[in-house]
Description:
Largest sheet: 7 strands, mixed
Shape: globular
Structural class: mainly beta
Number of helices: 0
Number of strands: 11
Amino acid sequence: QSQLVESGGGLVQPGESLRLSCVGSGFTFGTYAMKWFRQAPGKELELVASISVGGGVDYGDSVKGRFTISRDNAKNTLYLQMNNLKFEDTAVYYCKAGLSYWGQGTQVTVST
């Protein structure tokens, strides 16, 4: 059974950092482009960052310069390093493998 499992979410204050992880299993992780999405309450799903099989990266405008996507194919793991978090980063964060697999999501809350 193929699956993705996210972890690392939590409650932080503005300006702090978090690192999300997404572990894949049941498929050949290294052959899939990977993405991070997020969905805030009452808002549409937003593409946060993507990383290709070869390691090329791209970011949504709202997170450029603050977030870093990376992958460790030996560990079947995708990461999202989030620095200088803002209130508007509050959302459920999901990872996605190619067009096929979604994780269950991890909650990130930025609040005082």
